[in-house]
């Protein structure tokens, strides 16, 4: 009971550790599963959606897919369940011939999030292969003088299965003269040897038939057999001896086909047929037997097909040298393949955007790349870079993944499309390189307002224009693209003489043409100022304004109008208005007005103004004369003016600049702005006599006549 409890506790702890390990690997972007080989297509491998916390409805929206290295896709993602399933039947022995642990790797790419998760699937072995011998019929020749206890190596069986399902033991049956001994090789492999348990006699038996059986550890176990025929021959004193127990050679992977890689040599001191040595494979894998050819006569090992370091880096097999008496010796051959920089780096685009908005923040992932080089060492070390001066940079992700991210914000108005070249170069000498081009279109964002072609607009429009006449056209352009660059025009709100601006002019929304909606009258509106707004089609929309000045040009569209005398209405009787005929007396002088009440008042008004003006001048003159006389009297009393000629003084007749008569021209219309009052200087005349000549004496004011 206690033992059962302890076993249950160990199983629980193992399960807990397995769950913790799975959670830790999922957190670091890697999942591990295992599946037996030879499972049918569509078999369950693991619940990827659950382990990564992905919601099932969002799997198709996010563009989730499975990508495997190589040309064969062994796994797929079930879209409805989120399960990882097998896409092909998997044969472990075909994929991992000489590897103890067979592992397949794939990636789950979430394109919508530009995320990648590594998945490691271990392919576990099943006992689907029985041990087999390269030759099922083995011929041995032994001398009848061979001493009991002698051992002879036998061909080994091969089982491609691994672990417990691989070859486990040998059994020998058929004759009491022989026994089976199994030796452990350097790598832990079992090497069967045929031991002579009892002396042979040709006269007793010339042939011995034996059966060698190889058994694996499967349940049920599988077996393979080989029949051994031992021929007893006359005495053969000496066996062949190899010059080396082990032949080791290193060859580059690009060595030409047909080249001799190594030659094994064995000698036999016997003469005749007993001294003639031939070579054959003692133990060799199926793969190695297809690559290397052993010349039975010379012992030369030549290359039958091209080597590939990435497929195999080392090959080991045993060769046997036997003479005519069937005595033999064995030697080990190790061929190591060295890497040559013969593989260019491979760039795989796992996920990529075809377009990106221009306002995407710096660091936005636009592509997910997988880069690998099948070479090893420096030849397999890959350096990636971007060609040209582009606003992108490479960011190393986990493993062999790189992300292409934006290095700064983009501007579609400067560059609308990018062809980003990703270049990968290895560390070979000379380096090999490859490239991949990412085509990326920059999507427009409404970040530019419309710009008018002019800072301000002005136009001249003659009055009395026709309604609907084109005044001018404003034009604005938007550097954006598509709907964001579509410009529409409209008038800003305003009023003219109390009426809405829209009742005077209108603007065509698509073309920006400005039209006059009514006929303008210069006498009413001489200038019109307005604002036109250009607005793009973005969301939200951007706009700009421009001022427009419209000048109305005057035309001669108003005839003069006679205000007085008023015209007589049609059919009016005498005295109801002016008939167009005026009667003047015969004695009228030139310049006399026609009679009329309005004319009389005009004459009286002009006369009154003239009289007032003359009176003002006379008053001013009197004041100045009075002042002058006072100064003269003061000067006479002081004697300061004695001896001054009388001609230096001017009498009243010298004042002549201010006293003038004036004629007036008056023009009155119904429009007070056009009425005029003009004084004509050319018609004035002096009202005072001119100053007398200087030779005539002039009497001073206040001086008495001597007569």
How would you describe what is shown here?
The chain has 5 domains: 26-124, Cadherins (Immunoglobulin-like), CATH 2.60.40.60; 137-233, Cadherins (Immunoglobulin-like); 241-338, Sandwich (Immunoglobulin-like); 346-443, Cadherins (Immunoglobulin-like, Sandwich), CATH 2.60.40.60; 451-553, Cadherins (Immunoglobulin-like, Sandwich), CATH 2.60.40. It is 12% helix and 38% strand. It contains 6 helices and 46 strands. A 4-stranded mixed beta sheet has the order 1-7-6-3. A 4-stranded mixed beta sheet has the order 9-16-15-12, with no helix packed on it. A 4-stranded mixed beta sheet has the order 18-25-24-21, with no helix packed on it.
């Amino acid at each position: 009971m206690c033992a059962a409890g302890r076993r249950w506790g160990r199983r629980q702890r193992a399960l807990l550790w397995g769950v913790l390990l799975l959670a830790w690997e999922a957190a670091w972007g890697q999942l591990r599963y295992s599946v037996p080989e030879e499972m049918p297509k569509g078999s369950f491998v693991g619940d990827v959606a659950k382990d990564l916390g992905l919601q099932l409805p969002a799997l198709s929206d996010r563009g989730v897919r499975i990508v495997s290295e190589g040309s064969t896709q062994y796994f797929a993602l079930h879209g409805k369940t989120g399960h990882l399933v097998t896409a092909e039947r998997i044969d472990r022995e075909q994929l991992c011939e000489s590897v103890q642990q067979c592992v397949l790797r794939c990636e789950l790419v979430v394109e919508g999030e530009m995320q990648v998760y590594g998945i490691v699937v271990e392919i576990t072995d099943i006992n689907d292969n029985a041990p087999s011998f390269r030759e099922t019929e083995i011929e041995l020749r032994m001398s009848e003088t061979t001493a009991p206890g002698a051992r002879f190596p036998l061909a080994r069986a091969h089982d491609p299965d691994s672990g417990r399902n691989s070859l486990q033991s040998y059994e020998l049956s058929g004759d009491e003269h022989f026994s089976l001994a199994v030796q452990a090789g350097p790598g832990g492999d079992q090497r069967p040897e045929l031991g002579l348990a009892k002396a042979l006699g040709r006269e007793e038996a010339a042939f011995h038939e034996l059966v060698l059986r190889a058994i694996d550890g499967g349940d049920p176990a599988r077996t393979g057999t080989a029949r051994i025929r031992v021929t007893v021959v006359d005495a053969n004193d000496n066996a062949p001896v190899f010059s080396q127990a082990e032949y080791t050679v290193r060859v580059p992977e690009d060595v030409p086909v047909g080249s001799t890689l190594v030659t094994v040599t064995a000698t036999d001191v016997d003469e005749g047929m007993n001294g003639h040595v031939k070579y054959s494979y003692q133990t060799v894998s199926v793969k190695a037997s297809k690559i290397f050819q052993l010349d039975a006569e010379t012992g030369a090992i030549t290359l039958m097909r091209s080597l590939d370091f990435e497929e195999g880096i080392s090959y080991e097999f045993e060769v046997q040298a036997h003479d005519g008496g069937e005595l033999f010796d064995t030697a080990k051959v190790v061929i190591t393949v060295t890497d040559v920089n013969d593989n260019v780096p491979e760039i795989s685009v796992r996920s990529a955007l075809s377009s990106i908005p221009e306002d995407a923040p710096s660091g936005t992932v636009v592509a997910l790349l997988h880069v690998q080089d099948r070479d090893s060492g420096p030849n397999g070390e890959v350096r990636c870079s971007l060609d040209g001066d582009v606003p992108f940079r490479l960011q190393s992700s986990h493993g062999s993944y790189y992300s292409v991210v934006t290095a700064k914000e983009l501007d579609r108005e400067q560059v609308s499309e990018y062809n980003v070249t990703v270049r990968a170069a290895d560390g070979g000498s000379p380096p090999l390189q490859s490239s991949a081009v990412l085509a990326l279109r920059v999507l427009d964002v409404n970040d530019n307002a419309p710009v008018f072609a002019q800072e301000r607009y002005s136009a001249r429009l003659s009055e009395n224009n026709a309604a609907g006449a084109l005044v001018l056209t404003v034009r604005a352009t938007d550097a954006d693209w598509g709907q964001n660059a579509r410009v529409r025009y409209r008038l800003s709100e305003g009023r003219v003489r109390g009426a809405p601006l829209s009742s005077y002019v209108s603007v065509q929304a698509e073309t920006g043409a400005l039209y006059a909606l009514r006929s303008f009258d210069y006498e009413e509106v001489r200038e019109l100022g307005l604002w036109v707004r250009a607005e793009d089609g973005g969301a939200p929309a951007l706009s700009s304004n421009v001022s427009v000045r419209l000048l109305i040009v005057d035309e001669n569209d108003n005839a003069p109008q006679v205000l007085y005398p008023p015209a007589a209405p049609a059919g009016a009787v005498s005295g109801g208005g002016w008939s167009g005929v005026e009667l003047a007396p015969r004695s009228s002088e030139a310049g006399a007005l026609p009679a009329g009440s309005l004319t009389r008042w005009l004459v009286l008004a002009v006369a009154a103004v003239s009289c007032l003006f003359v009176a003002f001048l006379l008053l001013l003159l009197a004041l100045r004369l009075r002042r002058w006389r006072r100064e003269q009297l003061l000067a006479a009393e002081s004697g300061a003016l004695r001896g001054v000629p009388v001609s230096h003084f001017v009498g009243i007749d010298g004042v002549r600049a201010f006293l003038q008569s004036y004629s007036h021209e008056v023009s009155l219309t119904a429009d007070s702005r056009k009425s005029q009052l003009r004084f004509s200087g050319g018609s004035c005349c002096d009202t005072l006599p001119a100053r007398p000549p200087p030779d005539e004496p002039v009497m001073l004011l206040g001086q008495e006549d001597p007569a």
